[in-house]
Design goal:
heterodimer; A: MetI-like fold; 2 strands; 3% strand; B: alpha/beta; D-Maltodextrin-Binding Protein, domain 2; 6-stranded mixed β-sheet; 3-stranded antiparallel β-sheet; 43% helix
Chain lengths: 313, 437
């Protein structure tokens, strides 16, 4: 999710032109080789290995105190993963998580960014910093902090609520999903505010002035001028958010130490981890990972498709 | 009754041993390495136990042929076994590893450990152990580990709160429930103990104590009974305690648990001998010195106990120098010097005879209101024989933990053990093992 948004398209195209003119082909290759070498080693090779793994299965027999046999099983692992109640349940949970998280986070980020853009210059710097600050806290630490804030008996929040007569267990079966969404919103809103705010800065001031001359107030200007103009940035955010959501792992794994409500297969990534390291079924874990990657690919395709249509319209 | 159980246990063990060797599936029977008289070299040792660095250093200082490099790894709950298992599979695991009893069979079954037969001096090590501990480290006819500690399940109470409630130390589970009710009468907000949904091994110990057998072998098949009659009795009983708010459902070792012990909201801990330091650490600051006592876990009528925790030392498949590793494993598991070197790292109770007094000397038990080691000794002498761990504890462990997640929102303990049974059987079958329910 923390991937930088590419801003070097201009530089790349000039380089391309130069390469076409025939002087820098060798230089380009020289500069690109290290990247592709590492990419092949750290990305392509493991993916291929996973795909190969996912087509095999280790079969023991009898009591199991002997060598396991490895055999080719085709798509069997994939069927098993997709038939697994806990894996499908995890996808369902992830869908609910998205339904809660994406509107909260993106809506919040948009609101903050528009407010920041409308604010006076001095307050802007301060609020920008304040809003961004949670993102500077690593995910693991954030989850630990929130686990503490959610735990009854130690959390100041819970005890304040209790003294106000509100009995709320943030960690029980029903509340756990909103509780985890809250952590993610807290972590990611600030980051996305900065992205959107940067986009807002690029909105031509003449257009805004023209709108103002035509009698548009701040709200009208925000909704009718600024919002349509930052749609590309918004779609980039959506893309990263959707992919990031599929990779949900850290927060629930940490919270699972504080409550039994988060099971070991709570989301698909945890399912894959559990398959690999608890059930020692690397083949099934590989199949699950490939399925998750495919889901990410399909979803990102859908998001880009949808947003490019939006941009055109 | 008891002798019969023992006999049955022995018979089934022998039967399984015969079969395992019979079908020739013991991997290294032919290639068993022979003990070198005078091994030397450098070996690595992984453990998550505190103070093991000192033991390795003491071993290095005691002789000059073998050099042990010690590395701390995270404990099982924090991913230690995932690390160990992956490293062994990749061929860069340690020579000597530390594995708890429930996880041991799955490492054996995954072919990740070397049998110790032929490497260690059996007469001086394995043969001196009790049958109950031997059963934890021998599979088929081979020994795969030397046991370190053998942790009897122990019940810890706040004596002052029992006095306040006007009850003595509960002897049976019936007494325990009665004591809980009386405690509620004098301190309505207090719980007598907690039920730990994160500790499937504790449910196992409670069931073991009640005579359950979660895993066993029948011919060439595993017999799985995670919801057998004895376990159902235990599950129903604990559900009753939860419903009456005699025990609180909470994760052990969590912040909530620590806070409740310190504040006196929970006045008992169902744990083991190793719980002592944990209790002391969490309650010392709130002035509870002298109030905590150890007691034998309540029983179902006749004194009985089970192991709850404990680790063993093993030689992994990745060891290139098993002879040197074996010398170190012997030292770790049977030498008084090793125990001395470790110093005061908790109220250890060790499997090898003659070691516990050394550990006892190093441990300052003055925080507690009674002679805790006397209680450990008594509890240790009543371990129910015939328990066996299954070929993949992690499946049962996670299934049970996951099912317990619903306890706070209307789930039942009995449903949880049923779920764990189904998941275990399905999981084992999926890996190709033959399973009978």
């Amino acid at each position: 999710m923390a991937t930088q948004i590419p801003t070097t398209t201009g530089a790349a195209s000039t380089r391309k032109q130069r390469a076409m003119s025939g002087t820098g082909g060798r230089t380009a290759a020289l500069f690109l080789t290290p990247f592709f070498a590492v990419f092949a080693l750290a990305m392509v090779a493991p993916v291929i290995y996973s795909i190969v793994l996912s087509f095999f299965a280790q079969q023991k027999s009898g009591l199991g105190f002997g060598e396991a046999k490895t055999s080719f099983v085709g798509l069997e692992n994939y069927f098993q993963v997709l038939q697994s109640e806990s894996f499908v349940g995890g996808i369902g949970r992830l869908a609910m998580y998205c339904a809660l998280y994406i509107p909260c986070m993106v809506g919040g980020a948009l609101a903050f960014a528009l407010l920041l853009d409308a604010a006076v210059a001095r307050a802007r710097k301060l609020f920008q910093l304040l809003v961004f600050l949670p993102h500077a806290v690593p995910g693991v630490i954030a989850a630990l902090i929130w686990a503490y804030l959610y735990t009854p008996g130690v959390s100041p929040i819970v005890s304040v609520l209790e003294s106000g007569g509100i009995e709320l267990n943030f960690l029980d079966n029903q509340m756990i999903l909103p509780s985890i969404v809250n952590i993610a919103v807290w972590e990611w809103t600030g980051y996305n505010v900065i992205v959107l705010f940067t986009a807002l800065q690029a909105v031509p001031r003449e257009i805004l002035e023209a709108a103002r001359v035509d009698g548009a107030g701040e709200i009208r200007a925000a909704l009718s001028i600024k919002l349509p103009l930052i749609l590309p940035a918004l779609s980039v955010i959506m893309l990263f958010t959707v992919i990031g959501t599929l990779q949900l792992f850290t927060e629930p794994s940490i919270i699972s130490k504080a409550t039994a409500s988060v099971t070991s297969t709570w989301v698909p990534n945890m399912w894959a981890y559990d398959a690999a390291f608890n059930r020692h079924n690397l083949n099934q874990a590989a199949a699950a990972s490939i399925i998750i990657a495919l889901m990410a690919a399909v979803l990102s395709w859908a998001v880009t498709r949808f947003s490019s249509r939006m941009n055109k319209a | 009754m008891k002798r019969r159980q023992l006999l049955l246990g022995a018979v089934s063990l022998m039967a399984s041993a015969a079969l395992v060797t019979g079908c020739g599936s013991t991997p290294s029977a032919t290639s068993a390495p022979t003990a070198t008289e005078d091994p030397s070299g450098t070996i690595t040792f992984w453990s998550s136990m505190a103070g093991m660095d000192k033991v390795a250093a003491a071993f290095n200082a005691s002789q000059s042929k073998i050099k042990v490099n010690f590395e701390t790894i995270p404990n099982g709950g924090a991913g230690g076994y995932a690390k160990l298992s992956t490293a062994i599979t990749a061929g860069n695991g340690p020579d000597v590893a530390t594995i708890e009893y429930p996880q041991l069979p799955q490492f054996v079954s995954n072919g990740q450990l070397q049998p110790l037969d032929g490497l260690i001096n059996k007469a001086e090590t394995v043969d001196k152990l009790t049958d109950e501990t031997k059963a934890l480290v021998q599979f088929g006819d081979q020994t795969y580990a030397l046991p370190y500690d053998a942790a009897p399940m122990i019940m810890w109470y706040r004596k002052d709160m029992l006095d306040k409630a006007g009850v003595g130390t509960p002897k049976t589970w019936e007494d325990f429930e009665e004591a809980g009710k009386k405690l509620k009468a004098v301190a309505p907000e207090a719980y007598l103990a907690s039920f730990n949904p994160n500790e499937a091994a504790l449910t196992a110990a409670l069931s073991w104590q009640a005579g359950a057998k979660w895993f066993g072998t029948e011919g060439d098949s595993w017999k799985v009974g995670v919801n057998d009659a004895a376990t159902q009795k235990v599950a129903t009983y604990w559900q009753k305690l939860i419903d009456q708010k005699i025990v609180k459902v909470q994760q052990s070792f969590s912040d909530e648990w620590s806070a409740d012990l310190a504040s006196g909201a929970v006045v008992g801990v169902l744990g083991a001998n190793w719980s002592a330091t944990g209790i002391q650490k969490r309650t010392e600051a709130s002035g509870q010195k002298g109030q905590w006592i150890a007691a034998e876990a309540p029983n179902w009528g006749t004194p009985a106990d089970a192991f709850y925790g404990g680790s063993s030392f093993n030689i992994t498949k990745s060891s290139k120098n098993p002879a040197a590793a074996a010398k170190f494993v012997e030292y770790l598991a049977t030498s008084q010097d090793a125990i001395k070197a470790r110093g005061n790292t908790g109220s250890a109770f060790l499997a090898f005879p003659g070691l516990t007094p050394v550990a006892q000397q190093a441990f300052d038990a003055s925080y507690f209101g009674n002679d805790i080691y006397a209680v450990f000794d008594k509890a240790y002498s009543t371990i129910t024989p015939g328990w066996q761990w299954g070929p993949n504890w992690d499946i049962t462990n996670t299934a049970l933990k996951d099912a317990y997640g619903k306890l706070t929102t209307g789930g039942k303990v009995l449903e949880a053990v049923d779920t764990a049974q189904t998941a275990t059987v399905a999981g084992l079958k999926q890996s190709g093992l033959s399973v009978k329910e």
